[in-house]
Amino acid sequence: MADNVSVEEFLATAVDAAKKAGEIIRKGFYQTKHVEHKGQVDLVTETDKACEDLVFNHLKLHYPSHKFIGEETTAAYGTSELTDEPTWIVDPLDGTTNFVHGFPFVCVSIGLTLGKVPTVGVVYNPLMDELFTGILGKGAFLNGSPIRVSSQTELVKSLLATEPGTKRDTPTVDATTNRINNLLFKVRSVRMSGSCALNLCGIACGRLDLFYELGYGGPWYAFDHFDILRSYNIHYTIDTVCLYDQGCRSWRFNG
Hints:
Layout lengths: L6 H23 L5 E3 L5 E3 H17 L4 E4 H7 L9 E8 L1 H6 L5 E8 L2 E9 L4 E6 L4 E3 L2 E2 L12 E4 L7 H15 L4 E3 L4 H9 L5 E5 L8 H8 L5 E2 L12 E5 L1
Parallel strand pairs: 3-4, 10-11, 10-12
Antiparallel strand pairs: 1-2, 4-5, 5-6, 6-7, 7-8, 8-9, 12-14, 13-14
InterPro entries: IMPase (IPR033942), Inositol_monoP_metal-BS (IPR020583), Inositol_monoPase_Li-sen (IPR020552), Inositol_monophosphatase-like (IPR000760)
Protein name: Inositol-1-monophosphatase
GO biological process, one term: inositol biosynthetic process
């Protein structure tokens, strides 16, 4: 085990960091936001940056030899390489657009990879006080209680989550709307929460039956939640290879 530390200790440290970041999110949610644009509709706030700094500083204090990849750091300085070294992957504020508009589906997301394998995951929505945790092979939990995926096996009775993404060029928008049109004929209904992390946690606890998204926003959109989803051998399919080293086109999960 890396640094002779148990995975349970890694999880406890990540939970502490997530809850501290959650305090920043909760406070900032009710204040005036200072917003910057990473793209036409892709936003970043001072809260994103403050949360990433807090989480990184907290984790580095405990594990100074580990590697760190964060959404805002990567956006500012370019892609970071994922190695076999213990690596923390952080989305400090998933659902930034929700946060800016006062829509309470936001969270901080923290994952740990060991040998490039997602091993520990934490997703915390401070506005609803929901803490999702998972350790590979040891179960997934919501506020300390075990959770299970949906038992739904019929596509037509399934509740599916998806997201429109942040690109607004005509080919991407056309592909997105065509995809949604096609999906509506095949499932009971479609939801867009505005948070990839919370969509996947919705799969893990059975609130949602399926998730599908076109595109690859970065490892923080996958690795942290794989730990929760894979913690009890959830079935998932990946339309194309979805590795951090190579990127991917689309992925979906179901129970």
